[in-house]
Inverse folding.
């Protein structure tokens, strides 16, 4: 599903983001990426959605080499990957349902598709009854669930989540992780970047640890090492 | 589906327009100002042409014959003049008619009338009024009449030379035109800057929305299109308002212009009526072109792909 071959990323002038990463993530996996601040986790996540491009090496997603993707093809890639980023917020002037349908509308979905898909996505995250609320009328955890619903509208095969629980308390964090596990159980590959030791330890799934741009450990049923 | 997309793009543009309502008003005002100044330039140009042709139409040569000249001599001269290629028209005024015109011209001048009465018979001869095809031809016509057989019967020739007036009108209208073009260009430049900046503000105020559109996979065209639509909406609005200012203004100025120029040819309102589509179509095209250019610059600069 996701394959990285000798991927390096250097930010100008010579800041190392990632160094010589080799990685294979199979369909349906739930992979946590951990590591200290500034070790390249976000860089890795951004390269998966072609927000950043590798300085060296190859990134192949679903058989598609996106290392030198044409700008006009990037939207196609992003419709196949759901994104949940920490600083990737909801629009405050749109309701929950409008925020979710926005992602469909701007990609040219028909009104019928919008009517059909939005309730489904909201149902999965358990917010169908709050569809007409505005983001400020929701808790932090609920807001993050709307973001996940929005990431689901294109029925992505992969979800990339960069610290989706960064601002949440333990209870809300657990809810979000449970939700991601549920989405994973439908067959969606999940790449989760996190700082949260408990989350990683409770998941008992694959854990990749980065340090200064290098993979220092890759365990099938991993623990938070640092 | 194309319709749905178009509706979404226009809806986005309209919302952005509403959100930045004051900026929109300022931008449209500058566009209107530019258009109105361009229209004033156009009106001056039209009126300058009217003035010139009015003056040109008044230029002629009067050939006064001695009172004793027989009519057939006069007619010979007339035929001669008409045979010249540069002569457009020759009007024959008989001696009696010349006297009539003269006394009519001086009907309020008792002294002149009294001295006329003292004279025996008609002191005036026949007159030929010559109009040439171009102003440059008059000196040649004058010299053609110098030949001895004609000179003996011609009492006087009067060339009402208005070339200095015409030149004055031409320099003044050139100066006004140049000044007008400068002002219009200045407005155009300001308009370009303001439109550019407004698009930039519009991009800024929608940055969160744009970031989301990018990450959920909206195409580049879909992200950019609303800004172009926005610029087109401003242009349309500006041209409509400018038209709503210019048309009534031309109509209102009509009586003043006609009495000022002394000719019904000074028909500014008529000019606008006849050329409505061309004039405002051109202005819409130019304004929209400006808006699109500014949007192109602004989006390629400030809208990170
Ligand atoms: N746009 C950029 N320009 C220059 N350097 C960058 C840029 N983005 C990231 N970096 C640098 O690359 C390195 C990796 O950054 P990255 O954001 O991937 O870290 P991270 O593991 O996500 O950290 P955190 O846990 O704090 O989010 C850091 O040294 C960072 O300063
Ligand atoms: Mg990060």
């Amino acid at each position: 599903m996701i394959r990285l071959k000798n991927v390096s990323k250097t930010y100008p002038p010579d800041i190392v983001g990632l160094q010589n990463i080799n990685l294979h993530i199979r369909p349906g996996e739930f992979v946590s990426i951990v590591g200290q601040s500034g070790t390249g986790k976000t860089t890795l996540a951004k390269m998966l959605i072609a927000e950043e491009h590798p300085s060296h090496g190859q990134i192949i997603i679903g058989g598609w080499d996106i290392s030198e993707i044409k700008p006009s093809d990037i939207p196609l890639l992003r419709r196949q990957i759901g994104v949940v980023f920490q600083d990737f917020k909801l629009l405050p002037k749109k309701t929950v349902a409008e925020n979710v349908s926005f992602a469909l509308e701007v990609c040219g979905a028909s009104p019928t598709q919008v009517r059909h898909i939005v309730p489904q996505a909201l149902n999965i995250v358990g917010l169908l009854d709050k569809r007409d609320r505005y983001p400020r009328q929701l808790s932090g955890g609920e807001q993050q669930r709307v973001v996940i619903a929005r990431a689901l509208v294109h029925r992505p095969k992969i979800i990339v989540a960069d610290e989706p629980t960064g601002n949440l308390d333990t209870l809300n964090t657990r809810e979000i992780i449970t939700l991601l596990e549920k989405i994973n159980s439908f067959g969606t590959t999940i790449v989760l970047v996190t700082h949260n030791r408990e989350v990683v330890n409770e998941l008992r799934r694959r854990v990749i640890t980065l340090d200064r741009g290098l993979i220092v450990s890759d365990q099938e049923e991993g623990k938070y090492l640092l | 589906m194309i319709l749905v997309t178009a509706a979404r793009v226009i809806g986005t543009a309209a919302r952005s327009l509403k959100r930045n309502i004051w900026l929109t008003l300022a931008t449209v005002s500058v566009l209107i100002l530019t258009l109105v100044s361009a229209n004033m330039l156009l009106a001056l140009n039209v009126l300058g042409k009217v003035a010139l042709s009015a003056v040109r139409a008044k230029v002629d040569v009067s050939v006064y014959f001695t009172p004793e000249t027989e009519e057939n001599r006069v007619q010979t001269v007339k035929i001669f003049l008409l045979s010249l290629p540069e002569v457009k028209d020759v009007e024959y005024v008989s001696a009696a008619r010349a006297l009539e015109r003269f006394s009519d011209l001086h009907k309020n001048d008792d002294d002149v009338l009294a001295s006329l009465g003292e004279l025996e018979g008609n002191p005036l001869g026949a007159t030929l009024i010559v109009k040439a095809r171009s102003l440059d031809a008059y000196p040649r016509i004058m010299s053609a009449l110098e030949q001895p057989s004609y000179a003996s019967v011609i009492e006087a020739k009067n060339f009402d030379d208005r070339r200095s007036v015409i030149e004055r009108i031409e320099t003044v209208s050139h100066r006004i035109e140049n000044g007008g073009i400068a002002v219009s260009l200045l407005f155009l430049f300001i308009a370009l800057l303001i439109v550019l900046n407004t698009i930039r503000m519009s991009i800024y105020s929608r940055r969160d929305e744009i970031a989301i559109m990018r990450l959920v996979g909206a195409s580049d065209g879909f992200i950019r299109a609303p800004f172009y639509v926005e610029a087109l909406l401003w242009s349309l609005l500006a041209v409509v308002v400018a038209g709503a200012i210019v048309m009534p203004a031309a109509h209102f100025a009509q009586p003043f212009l006609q009495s000022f120029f002394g000719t019904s040819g000074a028909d500014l309102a008529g000019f606008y009526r006849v050329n409505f589509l061309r004039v405002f179509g051109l202005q819409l095209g130019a304004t929209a072109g400006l808006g699109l250019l500014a949007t192109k610059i602004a989006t390629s600069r400030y809208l990170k792909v």
